[in-house]
Predict the 3D structure of the following.
Amino acid sequence: MGKFSKAGGREMPELNTSSLPDLVFAFLFFIMMVTTIREVTLKVEFHAPAATELQKLEKKSLVTFLYIGKPTQEYVAKMGSETRLQLNDKFAEVSEIQDYIAQEKSSMKEEDQPYMTVSIKADKDTKMGVITDVKQALREAYALKISYSARKAQN
Amino acid sequence: MGKKRKVPQMNASSSADIAFMLLIFFLITTSMDTDQGLPRRLPPPVPKDQKKNEALDIKKRNLLVVLINSNNQVLCGTDYIDIKNLKDKVKEFIDNPNNDPSLPEKVEVDVPFFGKQMVTKNHVISLQNDRGTQYAAYISVQNELVRAYNELRDGISKKKFGKAFADLNDDQQTAVQMIYKQNISEAEPKNYGGAKK
């Protein structure tokens, strides 16, 4: 029996961790795939209004964002302090929405196009006149699914 | 030199740490905030040659006008109303529990799971606003309208299936939606009460 229980004869086998980095990398790639990095530098300031009956937007790749608000400090000199519209990275007029929507639509897969959603991210002090104009423009552009972006209200 | 020498293995134990650091970096920098909002469907654009008043073929009792003026006051039907009371008023309008002749007419509809139901199928809530209305006020009214629908749907779901509306399966949800169909019309823009642009 002594033959098998020799102290210090063998080393304790180490746990093989060589595949651990692969596992973590696989997870990393998964995260990189599912999250979309939207690099939009906000040029308008907005504080979303609060609401309680919110629904999550399902597919991020189908969502187009429209930002409506007052220009941030650094742009006030250039653009004035009136409410402005931001499409992607630049300021825009309401008349440019149609082209923008058409452009976004054509970059989608054809079967996804009817599900395109436009998320209106507007500041809570915006006058409805601007929103109404935007809504009319969206109707003309056949982007009929919209979502008024809001944050969860604390009760 | 008869001894065999092992090839020295590369120490890979730290690469796990490196991968973890990358992972954490991405987790922090990517915007995971899911965008939330009130979903709405806009009506398709009006053809240019069509007359404007053609669409107004709705019976008066089926129509509830909710109007927000430029001072963010809410007019529901014919009276000014506090936003806290709006939900109950809208609920009563949609449900019409006592078959009131001034509230929307009820139509018999065959609904799966429920059988024949009297439903206020043709009701329309028309949400109108002024150009000077504040966006936050508009959203809070929208929110109250949606809440009225959600509470009605939850109520009937609990009674029939013993579950909240959100927990029902798709078929059950469509059935409940048939009973309380969401009909909110966001009207063509008009000017009310001295809009200041």
Remarks:
- Chain A touches chain B through 56 residues (CB under 8 Å).
- The domain at 44-152 of chain A is CATH 3.30.420.270 (Nucleotidyltransferase; domain 5).
